[in-house]
Request: fold
Amino acid sequence: MWKDEIVEEIHQIREHYAKSFNYDLKAIFEDLRKKEAESGREVVNLSRQPGLKTRWSGRDFDGEVKKTKPS
Reply:
């Protein structure tokens, strides 16, 4: 089977990184959050807004058509 050298390198890096935290997901997550904060980059949250109740289609989640104001 053919192996991609780049993918193999990424797997090795990921394994080394996880091993450095003794495979503790909480510690890995905390380290990533720390790096995120130190990066100075804007972080975008793509989770759904709590007040958003309709989809772009104009239908409620229960399938009912949302009433809209006439244009």
